[in-house]
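Need tokens for this chain, all 509 residues.
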Amino acid sequence: MIMTHPGLPEGWGYAVWAVMLLLGLWALATRVPRELSRKTLNLEAFWLTRPLLRLLLHSPWPLRLLRLVVVALFLLVIVAGLYGSPIAERNIATVLTWNIWWAGLIVSVFFLGSAWCAVCPWDALASWMVRPRLWLGRLHVRIDNSLELKVPRYLRNVWPALLMFVGLTWLELGVGVTTSPYATALLSLLMVVLATLGMALFRNKAFCRFVCPVGRTVGFYAQLAPVELRPIDAEICAACTTLECYNGSDRVDPCPTQLVMGRLTQNTYCTSCGNCVRSCPRQNVGWRLRPPSHEAVIDARPHWDEAWFMLGLLALTGFHGLTMMPFWEEWMSAFAQRIGDSGQLLLSFSAGLVISMLLPALLYALTIFVLQRFSGREVGFRTLFTGLAFITLPLAFAYHIAHNLNHLVREGAGLGGVFMNPLGLGLEPLSMAEKHQRHFHMLISQDALFAIQGLLMMFGFWLAIKVLRHRGQAILPQAGWRLWPMLLFIIMVNGFHLWLLMQPMVMRM
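Here are the structure tokens for all 509 residues:
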């Protein structure tokens, strides 16, 4: 018997549709303001957050301790996966990795931006092996075992990260890594190996910037986060000639993704490591609050590879939800019979994955083509394609959080018991009664979960409209109602995501 989570109630579905239609009409009928508010709040100037931020940012030790804790949990996942019970719901390797970390990571981005990258265990272990630092009293020794090669020009983009994300999705949902503690441990070790190879071969942290699917997903979503690491006084950065934020100092490494703080306008490649904060001799770098999505609306610069990554993110996010529908297995079985597939149905799954990625991309390209025709071909197809791709970010992000909350809230309740016996030795699979018991002991009430999911879908739609209006105005002045093809695309995508949320969802484990 398959356990499912109930979908979003119809009442919330109607409410989201009503908001979508009202906002859509408003977007077509009103003018775009010439200027957008850019108010920010320096968190270190705020008395409530100043002590904590100064402790975390201006001393390296809090971050090192956090990394030690995360690495310890990561090593526990490895040991439990390799030597513990093969029962997914009893082994901390699968429960912590997929139900807690992978589900909670996306939620954390909205509040903390790319902070996860600062404590990433893959990067921490790679750094300790390739570029270790030793503190012997006042003596500071830095060892560098890297070849420090330049990254080839053809790899200086996010295409490798997109391919890795597709591969990770194939392993997660097709091969079934999420239900195998052993495979989860092997995949975790593989990521450490890749991070270590990238650091051993290339300058800085090429794996983090160009290859890591998790880091790039976090980075793109962080464009929507209400927090950013930026200069406190832009004039100080403008007058700086030493660029410690980029080059590092005697005791602080250079920026791992080669960013210059004075020119930084987006979170996409910032790993929140804090090197720039600690290396700046004028202490001119700090965290600040900003309007959510301002970066995606105005600041982020469009690039061809990044546009495709955002489209891939949208497609794969929807695909994750689709594979957890009760009818997905029936679809795969019927398709497998037609093509003669058998066993684990990997061929059928791969075909479904390819189709699910192509359809949103083709729909978006067709929408851009129609927009170009209605705008009188004033702007080239590629300019429109890259410039308006940012509308997909809030759509993917809102659904991704809403979907992951199901896993986090409904399937995270048994984590305490798993920590008591992390390897799951001597335990039987969860009975149906135990699964029902977990279902009724959610982290928050079901009504609260539904309310959060419904509001997230409204919020994501609103942000997408906001991005469309301002970027559309910047690319096509006086576009006005001619942006209707893009508005229709936003409504279709958000409507599809809403439909997915309203269906019963199969439990991960």
